[in-house]
């Protein structure tokens, strides 16, 4: 069986595509024995590493049943979102006290310590803490504080953490960039019932967006400004990361597939992850 070290990038809702990527790799006979992830890449990677991806996928596809506004807490100052309740739910899936070193496969969550101004790799310690630190998007989510350190989203410095896989022994290194500038379009299908459920969930996210930042004088919400800023920075840094580290297969998923807060589009994004992976594998095989 072909073994894979997998690097998963971040980009909020687009990270759902990683679920489809993992499904397609397994369907094609790959065994994933190491994962390094940033932000949503760390979240999805952790779910797989903890053998909870099925449960997580079911949860994201049924988010419309939950009170999202209640799941996310708001600061009275600064417009920041408190993710305590959200990560409590994720903790119920993977275990509040699960340690990275106890996982059946190697795992690394990448974040940035803004106190020491450096990139940090969590390769041991509490898994839930690591993914929460890795996905704390600046100006949107509260930073994660511990022992005098203040951790935020790893995408600030490293949104495609291939370097964290250097010591993993695998047949292939595969990187998944869900923030690509490619123009690929995907033909995906959802039922009418699913579309209605997504519209219900989207209405909840619209309320959140209005609550934290957009008014009649501003074209972009706080979500939009933070997301666009990160996209620009991450795409600039990505080329350096790929030049530094060898990748056997690069799966590119365009940032245009959705906005970073389109969490209601789980069905489509998972399908896109599968389609993009199949195309990348076919292209790789044709080159051999």
UniProtKB/TrEMBL annotation:
It holds the Pfam family Patatin. The keyword Hydrolase applies. InterPro entries: Acyl_Trfase/lysoPLipase (IPR016035), NTE (IPR050301), PNPLA_dom (IPR002641). A motif (DGA/G) lies at residues 153-155. GO terms for molecular function: hydrolase activity. Residues 6-166 form the PNPLA domain. GO terms for biological process: lipid catabolic process. PROSITE patterns: PNPLA. A motif (GXSXG) lies at residues 37-41. Keywords: Hydrolase, Lipid degradation, Lipid metabolism. The active site is at 39 (nucleophile), 153 (proton acceptor). PANTHER family: NEUROPATHY TARGET ESTERASE/SWISS CHEESE D.MELANOGASTER, NTE FAMILY PROTEIN RSSA. This is UPF0028 protein YchK. It comes from Desulfurella amilsii.
């Amino acid at each position: 069986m072909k073994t894979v070290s997998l690097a998963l990038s971040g980009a909020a809702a687009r990270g759902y595509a990683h679920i489809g990527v993992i499904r397609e790799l397994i369907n094609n006979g790959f065994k994933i024995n190491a994962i390094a992830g940033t932000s949503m890449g760390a979240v999805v990677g952790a779910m797989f590493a903890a053998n909870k991806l099925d449960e997580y996928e079911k949860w994201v596809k049924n988010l419309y049943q939950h009170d999202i506004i209640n799941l996310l807490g708001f600061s009275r100052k600064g417009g920041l979102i408190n993710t305590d309740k959200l990560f409590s739910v994720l903790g119920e899936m993977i275990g509040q006290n699960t340690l990275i070193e106890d996982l059946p496969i190697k795992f690394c969550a990448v974040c940035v310590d803004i106190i020491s101004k450096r990139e940090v790799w969590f390769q041991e310690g509490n898994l839930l803490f690591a993914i929460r630190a890795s996905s704390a998007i600046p100006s949107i989510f509260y930073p994660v504080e511990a022992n005098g350190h203040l951790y935020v989203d790893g995408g600030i410095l490293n949104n495609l953490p291939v370097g964290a896989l250097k010591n993993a022994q695998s047949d292939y290194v595969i990187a998944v960039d869900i923030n690509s500038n490619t123009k690929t379009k995907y033909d995906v299908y959802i039922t009418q019932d699913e579309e209605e459920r997504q519209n219900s969930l989207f209405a909840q996210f619209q309320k959140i967006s209005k609550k934290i930042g957009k008014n009649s004088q501003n074209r972009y919400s706080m979500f939009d400004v933070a997301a666009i800023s990160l996209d620009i920075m991450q795409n600039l840094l990505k080329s350096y990361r790929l030049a530094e580290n060898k990748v056997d297969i690069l799966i590119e998923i365009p940032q245009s597939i959705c906005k970073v807060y389109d969490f209601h589009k789980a069905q489509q994004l998972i399908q896109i992850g599968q389609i993009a992976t199949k195309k990348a594998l076919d292209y790789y095989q044709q080159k051999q």
